[in-house]
């Protein structure tokens, strides 16, 4: 092949998009996916970490990223390669509709950047993540793989209401696996946007997976998932056989 044949055609950029609840709004182009680790005390403890006893002791949040094209919007997740322990982590997803101003985002200004919310799964190759943790290596191959971020349609913030008043659940094959009130977040949405703004320039199109409560466990091909936040957000789908 000539070098020119290996340059992706400018006319065919593949920008991942989320669906929006309400057909008039079109779709939501995704720029980056930030993820928060250890944002519920019960999950931090189940992973063997020490949960902070109070907000004053919480230190700094754990952040990692997934590629934007890891999102799945049709609910069909092929069982990923390289793992024997694919875990579900049900999470609130925050979608930013505006760029942050330069500098550190004040807490009081954070909510104004939020377009809306979704419910998603931070799928994790737990065996690869655990091996990386043990060696002090990056988490990328445990977290940032293809199809690792199934997500519901996004709902505008005004229609969603206050985050802390909602609850999040995940059922697998009709059995409840994870459930929590969202007032249990160690860092709430303004806290996280404030913290992220000290590390990255937040922009419209960014998604933030806010962390998972306790109850993470393995998924198998054929499993059906049903993730919900309140009555407004729902993500249904299944784990398909591994692509060969
Ligand atoms: Mn997570």
Structure overview:
By secondary structure, this protein is α+β, with helices and mostly antiparallel strands. It has one domain (18-240): Fumarylacetoacetate hydrolase, domain 2 (Alpha-Beta Complex), CATH 3.90.850. The chain has 6 helices and 17 strands. The protein has helices at residues 41-46, 107-110, 126-135, 140-143, 157-160, 189-196, and strands at 17-19, 27-29, 33-37, 62-66, 71-72, 76-78, 86-87, 90-96, 114-121, 124-125, 149-150, 155-156, 167-172, 175-181, 207-209, 224-229, 233-240. The strands form 5 sheets. It has a 6-stranded mixed beta sheet with strand order 4-3-15-8-9-12. Strands 6-17-16-13-14 form a 5-stranded mixed beta sheet, with no helix packed on it. A hairpin with a 3-residue loop joins strand 16 and strand 17 (233-240). The structure holds manganese (II) ion. Residues 35, 89, 91, 122, 209, 211-212 line the site of manganese (II) ion.
